[in-house]
């Protein structure tokens, strides 16, 4: 088991990052909100979870240990694999998922692409007594360099990486543009992770 990876960011793609560790490039599958915090040439330490299949070994990377633990717990529910668990954490923070499950909020869970009403009900039934209450953690904040003028490209790339079409991603980016402008008007840089989640909710309502 590889608990975490600490290295220099060699490249950042739509769905993964390559960290150079001791001259070896390790590819980690990450949600867009995690990728938005990474910068090429800078060091990063990401908690990881290894998913073993007959044909592959895949490392998933996370913002923090809380995301990692929720990712692993989600997969214990019937029908939830690593990709769907990652998508759930792309749309909702760990505490939002805890709250949705413990309060039986089917509507919130179905905003995740790939989860219908029956799937949401099954997740609630199987995890309600195990996921625990919200911890009050807000998660790791994206650094200022990740919340710059490139937020449109990052959000768009994240949506495409999750399976949405280019046209759908374009519309979702435009839909959340007022939120980004409101942040700038208030003296803050747009939060890419928050904008991505808002864009995913917009697409799920469409």
UniProtKB/TrEMBL annotation:
One Pfam family linked to the record: RuvA_C
Keywords: Cytoplasm, DNA damage, DNA recombination, DNA repair, DNA-binding
Keyword Endoplasmic reticulum annotated: no
Domain of life, per lineage: Bacteria
Protein localization: Cytoplasm
GO molecular function, one term: ATP binding
Gene Ontology cellular-component annotations: cytoplasm; Holliday junction helicase complex; Holliday junction resolvase complex
GO biological process, one term: DNA repair
Main localization, broad class: cytoplasm
rRNA processing keyword on record: no
Domain III: annotated segments: 147-206
Domain Helix-hairpin-helix DNA-binding motif class: 72-91, 107-126
Domain comment as written in the entry: Has three domains with a flexible linker between the domains II and III and assumes an 'L' shape. Domain III is highly mobile and contacts RuvB.
Subunit and partners: Homotetramer. Forms an RuvA(8)-RuvB(12)-Holliday junction (HJ) complex. HJ DNA is sandwiched between 2 RuvA tetramers; dsDNA enters through RuvA and exits via RuvB. An RuvB hexamer assembles on each DNA strand where it exits the tetramer. Each RuvB hexamer is contacted by two RuvA subunits (via domain III) on 2 adjacent RuvB subunits; this complex drives branch migration. In the full resolvosome a probable DNA-RuvA(4)-RuvB(12)-RuvC(2) complex forms which resolves the HJ.
Function: The RuvA-RuvB-RuvC complex processes Holliday junction (HJ) DNA during genetic recombination and DNA repair, while the RuvA-RuvB complex plays an important role in the rescue of blocked DNA replication forks via replication fork reversal (RFR). RuvA specifically binds to HJ cruciform DNA, conferring on it an open structure. The RuvB hexamer acts as an ATP-dependent pump, pulling dsDNA into and through the RuvAB complex. HJ branch migration allows RuvC to scan DNA until it finds its consensus sequence, where it cleaves and resolves the cruciform DNA.
Family of this protein: Belongs to the RuvA family.
Protein name according to UniProt: Holliday junction branch migration complex subunit RuvA
């Amino acid at each position: 088991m590889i608990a975490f990876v600490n290295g220099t960011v060699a490249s950042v793609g739509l769905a993964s990052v390559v960290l150079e560790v001791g001259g070896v490039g390790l590819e980690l599958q990450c949600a867009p909100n995690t990728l938005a915090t990474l910068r090429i040439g800078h060091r990063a330490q990401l908690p990881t979870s290894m998913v073993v299949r007959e044909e592959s070994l895949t490392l998933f990377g996370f913002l923090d240990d809380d995301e990692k633990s929720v990712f692993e717990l989600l997969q214990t529910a019937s029908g939830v694999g690593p990709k769907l668990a990652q998508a759930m954490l792309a749309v909702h923070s760990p505490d939002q998922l805890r709250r949705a499950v413990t309060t039986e909020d089917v509507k919130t869970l179905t905003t995740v692409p790939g989860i219908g009403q029956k799937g949401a009900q099954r997740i609630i039934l199987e995890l309600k007594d195990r996921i625990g209450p919200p911890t009050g953690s807000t998660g790791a904040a994206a650094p200022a360099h990740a919340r710059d003028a490139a937020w449109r490209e990052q959000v768009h790339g994240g949506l495409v990486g999750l399976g949405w079409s280019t046209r759908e991603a374009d519309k979702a980016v435009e839909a959340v543009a007022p939120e980004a402008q409101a942040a700038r008007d208030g003296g803050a840089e747009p939060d890419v992770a928050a904008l991505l989640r808002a864009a995913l909710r917009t697409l799920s309502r469409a």
